[in-house]
Amino acid sequence: MKTYNAEIIGVGTELLLGQIANTNAQFISDQLAKTGINIYYHQAVGDNLKRVKDSFKQAATRSDFVFVTGGLGPTEDDLTREAFQALTGKHLVENKQIIEKISNYFDKTNRKMAANNRKQAQIFSDAVIIQNQVGTAPGMIVTYQQSLFIFMPGVPKEMKPMMLNFVLPYLKENFQLKNLIKSRMLKFIGISESQLETDVKVLIDKQENPTIAPLASDGEVALRITAKAENEIIADQLIEHAENEIKELVGPYFYGYDGTTINDTVLHLLAEKNLTIASAESLTGGLFADALVSIPGAGKTFMGSIVSYEESTKSSVLGVSEQTIKTEGTVSDACAYEMAKQASVKFDASIGISFTGVAGPDKAEGKDVGTVFISIYQGENRVLTKSFYFPGERDTIRNRTVKKGLELLYYWLIE
Q1: Roughly how many angstroms between the first and final C-alpha of the chain, as a whole number?
Q2: β-bridge partners, 9
Q3: Around Cβ 315, how many Cβ atoms within 10 Å?
């Protein structure tokens, strides 16, 4: 069975300037994966006739399907039609039905149709028209050399119905698309990306179908398993087999799938064990509390937090002993321990967790920027206090500290 390769081109200078995110490409990629079409390239090109033309020319040399969004509007900087015409020499003709539709649209909204709106009715003579049920600019499907170009508006609310209601059915009917591509994300914490890749290298080296790809985010890593199959049942079987092989190698670091976060997992474990938690935060300044309370239902397990940033508040508000602060300092394991204990006591929580350290820009108490202490207190017989060093900018250090705290809690709770 023939496999088809596709790419997506977003036309619009606003994409390059970062004024809007190219969510169209994400949506189209997700939909195409379900049909078994390989997505090999994403492009974004500004409103420049030559560059748009060049992007089309390059796409035609390597892709069976080229999805183009944007540049179909009525203004001078909407150049998609013109660029494709310059490349192919195809004729543009004004479609009477589309002109009537555009005119009726303006009549219904009590607005006058400008002359340049007629541009939106310019259709390539050999194109299959994609009706726009939401806006005025139609889409088009046109063949050039060995490639099928699918032109759609850049406005997501116009593009998505076209994709779902016309383009996908058209492709399935005309190209006998029977395969699908399915992915599953396995998420890990407490292991570096390089170590994870090393540990599963034997699987990556032999991969064919499904494929395994490592991904990293701040403080945690993931493996994406992607299978191509005739149906979901077979795809799931392929993914399940790969997952079992992966877990045999790095299972102890696995904590969840796909959209699950370590925040979700920690809260779920706390609730499952009927435990509550409170925090005392210095350098993190409430980031840990925010990480938990941003999850619906957190109030059942998260009791509260004290942000004791300044030295005096650690003693006067939180209750850290002045002797500890005087002899050990606020950036110390002793201070972290007392902060965690006081958080547990003051909020009557099963567990207290604390964060203290130096986020910068300058050293503090002789400690380097990036020095961090985290403590977990669950009664005098169960305490963990650890020190870490996180290089980077201030916000990086603070975010890494919170993620490390969640990691420690996760392993604390599954023991």
Answers
A1: 49
A2: 43, 68
A3: 18
The CATH number that domain 262-414 falls under is 3.90.950.20
- Burial class of residue 204, CB neighbours in 10 A (0-12, 13-18, 19+): middle
DSSP helix/strand/coil, 209: coil
- Give the whole-angstrom CA distance, residue 188 versus residue 203: 17
For the chain, state the CA radius of gyration. Answer: 28
Query: Rounded to whole angstroms, how far apart are CA atoms 44 and 27?
Result: 15
- How far, in Å, CA of 89 to CA of 96, rounded? 22
**Secondary-structure class of domain 180-257 per CATH:** alpha beta
**What's the fold here for domain 5-175?**
Molybdenum Cofactor Biosythetic Enzyme; Chain A (3.40.980)
Let me know how long the chain is.
Answer: 415
Distance CA 78, CA 69 (A): 11
pTM across the whole model: 0.73
Decide if 35 contacts 168 (C-beta within 8 A).
Answer: yes
Give the SS3 label for residue 267. Answer: helix
Model confidence pLDDT, tens digit, residues 339-387? 999 999 999 999 999 999 999 999 999 999 999 999 999 999 999 999 9
User: Over 126-176, what HEC string results?
Assistant: CCEEECCCCCCCCEEEEEECCEEEEEECCCHHHHHHHHHHHHHHHHHHHHC
The band of 16, judged by pLDDT with boundaries at 50, 70 and 90, is very high
**d(Cα 128, Cα 174) in Å, to the nearest integer?**
13
Q: What separation in angstroms does the CA of 79 have from each of 84, 134, 163, 168, 197?
A: 9, 21, 21, 25, 44
Does the pLDDT at position 320 exceed 90? yes
Instruction: State the average pLDDT over residues 118-135.
Output: 91
> Average model confidence (pLDDT) for the chain?
94
pLDDT tens-digit readout, 40-82:
999 999 999 999 999 999 999 999 999 999 999 888 888 999 9
Which residue ranges make up each domain of the chain? 5-175, 180-257, 262-414
Q: Is residue 23 pLDDT above 90, yes or no?
A: yes
Cβ pair 53, 69 in contact under 8 A: no
Q: Please report where in the chains the tokens 């950036």 appear, as a residue.
A: 331
Query: One fold for both 5-175 and 262-414?
Result: no
DSSP letter assigned to residue 364: B
